[in-house]
């Protein structure tokens, strides 16, 4: 394929992602007329129509949509190959785009390790963001993500970090004023403190029970859910790192211990990005450091961690 066609593919991707030639010109730095010419030449070479053009809108044809998806993936692979070829084997430098679950696990367990990593490798900049939804590594150009739960994409490189145990807990005062909780069904009549999910699926071996939160408190913060449980407002469901110290000192009591669940924390990386030396080094760093950090927070508790952070401030 000649150079004009490669430039045409780049132009077509800009237009497809921007939704029009004017917006694509602003993003790419090329003129609107030049982009239009490149895309027209590409369509002529392929002998297909990639775009529907009207005076008011522009959209991809069915063939154009499929061609865009394949070209986008190919360009990402070419860019990754070029970066791999040009990188130094010994020198660690460049940007690593990383996404992770938020809350205590992301912000207080993962982030300090990333900060320590950057302190040791000042040539690397880790662009770290947090989200409650699972992002698409390929579509969003991430080099690395940390996910909790079952993996669906087997084409990604996976590195296990830790198994998180979810516990159902309540304060002694709350439990004294309510019936004994012996079955998941007993939760239905109680006040439940939940996050963004308004139903709980409890597991014990092959058994599954679903409890819908019909009365209770809804907050999208694990820390606040813990505080509400400590205040005696109801039963909540939290990862062990939030509540293990409270269980140890009797501030909270675990209910339905046979129904506690274990969920895998995993680092995921696209195969092409895994070939980059700086990404592999960060993965190994996190694998070597994460477990000790998790156990420290697990034993000391959230209150100790927050007091430690206030002293640093």
List the helices and strands and how they pair.
Layout: H1 3-18, H2 21-28, H3 32-46, E1 51-53, E2 58-60, H4 62-86, E3 94-100, H5 103-120, E4 124-130, E5 144-148, E6 157-170, H6 172-176, E7 192-194, E8 199-204, E9 207-212, E10 216-218, H7 222-230, E11 235-239, H8 240-248, E12 253-255, E13 261-269, H9 271-274, H10 277-300, H11 302-312
Parallel strand pairs: 3-4, 3-5, 7-10, 7-11
Antiparallel strand pairs: 1-2, 5-13, 6-11, 6-12, 6-13, 8-9
> How many separate domains?
3
State the order of secondary-structure elements, H for helix, E for strand. HHHEEHEHEEEHEEEEHEHEEHHH
Number of helices: 11
CATH superfamily of the largest domain: Periplasmic binding protein-like II
On the 0-100 scale, what is the average pLDDT? 85
Task: Jot down its keywords.
single chain, 313 residues, alpha/beta, Arc Repressor Mutant, subunit A, D-Maltodextrin-Binding Protein, domain 2, nine-stranded mixed β-sheet, elongated, WH-like_DNA-bd_sf, WH_DNA-bd_sf, LysR_subst-bd, LysR family transcriptional regulator, DNA-binding transcription factor activity
Overview of this protein structure:
The protein is an alpha/beta fold and about 325 residues long. It has 3 domains: about 5-85, Winged helix-like DNA-binding domain superfamily/Winged helix DNA-binding domain (Arc Repressor Mutant, subunit A); about 95-160 and about 265-310, D-Maltodextrin-Binding Protein, domain 2, CATH 3.40.190; about 165-265, D-Maltodextrin-Binding Protein, domain 2 (3-Layer(aba) Sandwich). About 45% of the residues lie in helices and about 25% in strands. The protein has 11 helices and 13 strands. The chain has helices at about 5-20, 20-30, 30-45, 60-85, 105-120, 170-175, 220-230, 240-250, 270-275, 275-300, 300-310, and strands at about 50-55, 60, 95-100, 125-130, 145-150, 155-170, 190-195, 200-205, 205-210, 215-220, 235-240, 255, 260-270. The strands form 3 sheets. Strands 3, 4, 5, 6, 7, 10, 11, 12 and 13 form a 9-stranded mixed sheet that branches. Strands 1-2 form a two-stranded antiparallel sheet. The protein has a two-stranded antiparallel sheet with strand order 8-9. Helix 1 crosses helix 3 (about 30-45), helix 1 packs across helix 4 (about 60-85) and helix 8 (about 240-250) packs parallel to helix 10 (about 275-300). The longest helix has 25 residues, at about 60-85.
């Amino acid at each position: 394929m000649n150079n004009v066609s490669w430039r045409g593919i780049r132009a077509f991707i800009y237009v497809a992602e921007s939704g029009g030639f004017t917006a694509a010109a602003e993003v790419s730095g090329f003129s609107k007329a030049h982009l239009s010419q490149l895309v027209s030449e590409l369509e002529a070479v392929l002998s297909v129509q990639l775009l529907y053009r009207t005076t008011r809108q522009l959209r991809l044809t069915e063939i154009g949509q499929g061609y865009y998806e394949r070209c986008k993936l190919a360009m990402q692979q070419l860019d990754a190959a070029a970066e791999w070829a040009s990188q130094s084997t010994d020198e660690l430098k460049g940007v690593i785009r990383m996404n992770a679950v938020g809350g205590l696990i992301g912000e207080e367990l993962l982030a300090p390790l990333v900060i320590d990593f950057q302190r040791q490798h000042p040539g690397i900049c880790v662009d770290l963001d947090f989200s409650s939804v699972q992002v698409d590594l390929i579509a969003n150009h991430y080099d690395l993500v940390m996910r909790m739960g079952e993996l669906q994409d087997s084409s990604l490189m996976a590195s296990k970090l830790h198994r998180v145990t979810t516990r159902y807990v309540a304060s002694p005062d709350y439990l004294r004023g309510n019936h004994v909780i012996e079955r998941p069904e007993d939760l239905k009549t109680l006040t439940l403190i939940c996050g963004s999910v308004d139903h709980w699926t409890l597991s014990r071996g092959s058994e599954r029970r679903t409890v819908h939160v019909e009365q209770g408190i809804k907050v999208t913060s694990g820390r606040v859910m813990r505080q509400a449980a400590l205040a005696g407002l109801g039963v909540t469901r939290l990862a062990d790192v939030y509540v293990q110290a409270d269980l140890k000192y009797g501030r909270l009591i675990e209910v339905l211990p046979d129904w506690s669940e274990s969920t895998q924390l995993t680092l995921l990386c696209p195969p092409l990005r895994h070939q980059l030396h700086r990404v592999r080094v960060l993965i190994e760093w996190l694998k070597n450091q994460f477990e000790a950090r998790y156990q420290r927070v697990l034993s000391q508790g959230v209150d100790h961690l927050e007091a430690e952070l206030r002293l640093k401030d």
